[in-house]
Write a structure and sequence with these properties.
single chain, alpha+beta, Aminoglycoside 3'-phosphotransferase, Chain: A, domain 2, 3-stranded antiparallel β-sheet, about 45% helix, globular
Length: about 425
């Protein structure tokens, strides 16, 4: 990394890149916004009240990708080079600047939007309309790029001086315990690895998932409630309710991964609200949750139905698609546990319960569909098939609009 951004040089850097004028001087302001474990995030307010988000990788460790923002920049270039993908641009923020050498990326700061996870936490409501908007947008991304070789080849572009032999398969299990783990993992967290290795069916299910992984479209690969922004006037707008951000991990992949990761993020709200005590059985703890699963199910079902209604072809490509989504949901929960152990050095009773739920999702996915969505797989598929048939009868030859209409308030023309 040649340049390290700080409060002392951020304005000067933006001036040198042409993103702000030196004449404005004192009118330009900056502030540190919530940074991730990996990135420095600075919000800069320029003269005229234009706001920018400047991101930089904190530091590069031995096992980390030094080209952390390259895929996000590549995704932006894909949208620029293929205007037919204009629909996707409506829910993906535009990139203004990329410095590969110093791992710096700049985009517009979306002032009217907030993280969906914060919205749910502050309001304690889960409107199905929001989940429907997410499902439809995600389906547009997958459908527009589905089996399109030119897009796949474009996303296979490697950073300068690097090679890409294939795309990363996210269906990975937990590494075996080695002596090195005792120096990096707290003692109580070792229980996770012991429990995981005790379940042979769990390891087998993940291995099967990895074997059957079939990349067929562009995927976000880090889709969670923190990476979805909701408009402050979401209940007044007809479109552009949401934005999907942080495309650092995007690549050619399996669409079930995106949906599974997102559903796991919703389930995290439920699982983090459990009443946990050594004297309470799992079933009782689930029943006493502060945010019961039943409160989330309308949104989960709306998400799945909206996705299938917008992309029914995926069921022809993979008849077991919903089951695979459930399995990837379980895998995402396991990944969440590993993230907690790695960065928070913690593994508690909530995580034990999460592991049990993840095991069920991976090993008995057919039964788990009913538990998660509140309806059977056949009813979800039947609903999608009815909508798909109706659309075909209305006019199979009608083209999908290339661009969204201009955002407008409901009730106004």
């Amino acid at each position: 990394m040649l340049l390290s951004l700080s409060s002392h040089n951020i304005i000067q850097y933006l001036q040198e890149t042409g993103l702000c004028c030196s004449e404005d001087g004192a009118a330009n302001k900056y502030e540190l916004v919530k940074s991730s474990q990996h990135n420095l995030n600075l919000r800069v307010t320029l003269a005229g009240n234009q706001k920018l988000l400047v991101k930089q990788k904190h530091h590069i460790e031995n096992n980390e990708n030094p080209h952390v923002f390259f895929n996000e920049w590549l995704f932006h270039q894909l949208l620029q080079q293929f205007p037919v993908l204009g629909n996707i641009s409506a829910f993906a923020p535009s990139i203004l600047h990329f410095n590969e050498e110093s791992s710096i990326l700049v985009r517009n700061y979306l002032s009217e939007y907030s993280e969906l996870n914060e919205f749910y936490g502050h309001n304690d409501i889960f409107p199905p309309e929001i989940a429907t908007a997410i499902g439809t947008s995600l389906a547009e991304l997958h459908r527009a790029t589905f089996q399109q070789r030119e897009y796949r080849d474009f996303m296979a572009t490697a950073p300068e001086g690097q090679f890409r032999y294939n795309f990363y398969n996210p269906a990975q299990g937990v590494d075996s315990i080695s002596p090195e783990i005792f120096g990096t993992v707290p003692t109580e967290a070792l229980k996770f690895y012991l429990l995981y290795q005790r379940y042979e069916s769990l390891e087998s299910a993940i291995a099967d998932l990895a074997y059957e992984w079939q990349p067929c479209c562009l995927t976000h690969n880090d889709l969670n409630l923190n990476n979805i922004l909701i408009h402050s006037r979401w209940d007044q707008l007809d479109n552009c309710l949401i934005k999907l951000i942080d495309w650092e991990a995007c690549s050619w992949g399996d669409p079930a991964v995106d949906l599974g990761s997102l559903i796991a993020s919703y389930l995290g709200i439920w699982l983090s609200s459990l009443v946990v005590d050594s004297s309470i059985e799992l079933e009782e703890s689930l029943r006493l949750a502060m945010t019961p699963l039943e409160m989330l199910q309308p949104s989960l079902l709306a998400l799945m139905r909206a996705y299938l209604n917008a992309f029914p072809m995926i069921l022809e490509y993979r008849s077991d698609f919903i089951v695979r989504v459930i399995q990837f949901t379980g895998l995402a929960l396991i990944n969440q546990i590993q993230e907690t152990i790695k960065y928070r050095k913690y593994f508690g009773n909530n995580d034990i319960y999460m592991l049990q739920i993840a095991k069920n999702l991976l090993t008995i996915p057919e039964q788990s569909v009913l538990s998660i969505f509140g309806v059977s797989e056949s009813k979800i598929v039947k609903s999608s098939a009815i909508v798909h048939k109706f659309v075909q009868l209305e006019g199979e030859k009608k083209l999908v609009p290339v661009y969204y209409q201009k955002t407008r308030l409901r009730g106004f023309n």
